[in-house]
Amino acid sequence: MLRRLGDVFGPTVNIASRLTSLGRAGDVRVDENTAAALGDNPRFQLDEQPPQDVGGYDRLRSWRLRRVDSDMPG
């Protein structure tokens, strides 16, 4: 990541930008590295989404992230 004059550039920023275009309003999408880091955390549910072609990335993999509400039954 590169910072210049208050802006940030680089692959991390590009992927984050592409992920925001994939979800619906209220969705949280994460990349492969973030999904792997959260994979064993029981507070979150990760649902892998079909890979999609987006600007600069062929078959970008993403996961929808949801918080598990421990107060809900079942």
UniProtKB/TrEMBL annotation:
GO biological process: cyclic nucleotide biosynthetic process; intracellular signal transduction
Domain Guanylate cyclase span(s) in chain numbering: 7-64
Gene3D superfamilies: Nucleotide cyclase (3.30.70.1230)
Gene Ontology terms for molecular function: adenylate cyclase activity
Coiled coil: none
One Pfam assignment: Guanylate_cyc
Stated name of the protein: Guanylate cyclase domain-containing protein
